[in-house]
Amino acid sequence: MSTPFHDSRDSEASVDWLDTALWATRPEPIPDDGFSARVVRRLPVVLTPSQAQAELQRRARQGRRFERWTLAGAVAGGIIALSGGPWPTWTQMAASLSDLAALRLASTAALTPWLASLCSAAALAYVLHRD
Amino acid sequence: MLAPVDHEQVTLALAAAGDPNAFAQWVRQHQSAVRNQLRQLTKGDVALADDLAQETFIQAWTHLAEFRGQARSSTWLFRIAYNRFLMHARSHRPTQPLPDDESATDGTEGATQHDSRPAQALRLDMQAALARLPETERVALIHCYHMDLSHEEAAQVLNLPLGTLKSHVLRAKARLREWLSAWAPEVSR
Questions:
Q1: Residue A27 gets which letter from DSSP?
Q2: Pick from B91, B74, B128, B108: which is nearest to B181 by CA?
Q3: CB–CB of B144/A11 below 8 Å?
Q4: How far apart are CA A105 and CA A109, in angstroms?
Q5: Coil, helix or strand for B41?
Q6: What is the DSSP letter of A102?
Q7: For residue B63, which of B84, B46, B92, B49 has the smallest C-alpha distance?
Q8: Minimal CB count within 10 Å: which of A22, A50, A80, B38?
Q9: To which H or E segment does residue B65 belong?
Q10: Does the beta carbon of A2 lie under 8 angstroms from any beta carbon of chain B?
Q11: CB-side exposure of B29: number of CA atoms within 13 Å?
C-alpha cells in the first residue's frame, strides 16, 4: 500500500501549503447505503466451474430423456404401422392422396400406415444421427 | 512459517469463482473510492456517478478472472471507472457550456470572506479552483491527491505516460498556487 501522495512532491523539497490544502479537501467517504446490494442485484449470471459442470450434466440428462421418448415413439409408430391390418394398394394410395388434396379427410385412412411408418423412420433417423 | 493471508486476495478469488457474497464484500470495500472518483469526474453529478459506478463494478465482475493482481485492485477499478466515464462523456456531449474562466474566478478569491468556517471555505475555494483547471490537469491532480494513487498508478489509470502525468500535475499545481494564494498563510499556520 502506498502512502498517500508519497510522490506528489516533485516540485518541492517538502510538502508545501498547497499539498496540505489539497489533502485537506479530499472528498469525505461515501456510506454504502445499499449501493453494493444494488450492484449485486444487477450482476449478470456467471456460472462457477461446478455450476457449469452441473448444467452440462443437466443438459446430458435432458438429451438422454429426449432420445428415450423419441425411440419409444418410433417403435410404437412402427408397431402400429405394421399391425394395423392390410396395407393399401397403390390404387388406394393414389385415391387417398387425391382425396387429401381435395381436403376430403374421411377417406384418407389408407395413408395412415404409410404416414406412421414414415414418422417412425424419420424419428429413428433423427435420434441415430443427431450427434 | 506460513505466508500471511491477504484477505482481499481471498475475497477476490472467491468472487472470481462466482461467489456473489464475496463480490459484495469487495464492492463495499471500494465503493466509496470509486463513487468519489466518478463524482469528481462528473463534477458532482451524483446520480450519473453512481450509475457509472454500478456499471464499473458489473464490468469488474465479468472480468474478475482476468485480474492478475499486478496492480492494486483499487487501481484496476479506477481504470475501469475512468474508461466508463470516458465512454459516457463521448456519447453524451454536454448540452450546457462549461463555465468559463471569468465566472469561475468568483469562487477562488474569497478566502477572506469565509473566516468563520475556514475548512469549509477552503473546500469550496478548492472545488472552484479545480473546476477552472483544464480537464487533463484537473483529472491528473484529483487522481494523485484525492484518490490515494502514486504517480505511476495515476498514469496507469489515465493511460498516460508517466512524464505527461507529472507535467499535468505540476502545471495544475502552479495554477492553483496562484489562484489560491490567499490561502497560503491560513493553510501554513
A1: P
A2: B108
A3: no
A4: 8
A5: helix
A6: T
A7: B84
A8: A50
A9: none
A10: yes
A11: 15
For an interface test with A, give the residue of B11, B21, B25, B27 to mutate (most A CBs within 10 A): B27
CB count within 10 Å of CB A49 equals 9
Spatial distance between the Cα atoms of A74 and A68, rounded to a whole number of angstroms: 10
B77: left (phi over 0), alpha (psi -120 to 50) or beta: alpha
Q: Per-residue pLDDT tens for B65-97?
A: 788 777 888 999 999 999 999 999 988 765 444
DSSP summary character for residue B15:
H
pLDDT digits (tens, 9 = 90+) for B18-57: 778 888 999 999 999 999 999 999 999 999 999 999 999 9
Cα–Cα nearest to B15, from B81, B54, B60: B60
- Can you tell me whether residue A45 is helix, strand or coil? coil
C-alpha cell at B21: 457474497
- Residue B129 and residue B179 in contact, taking contact as beta carbons nearer than 8 Å: yes
DSSP state of A13: S
Which residue has cell 479537501? A25
- pLDDT, tens only, B6-16: 788 878 877 77
Answer whether A14 touches B (CB < 8 Å).
no
What is the number of other CB atoms lying within 10 angstroms of the CB of residue B22?
A: 18
Q: What span, in angstroms and rounded, lies between the C-alpha atoms of A126 and A69?
A: 12
Spell out which residues of chain A touch residue B39, defining contact as CB-CB under 8 Å: 27, 30
CB contact under 8 Å between A40 and B23, yes or no, is yes
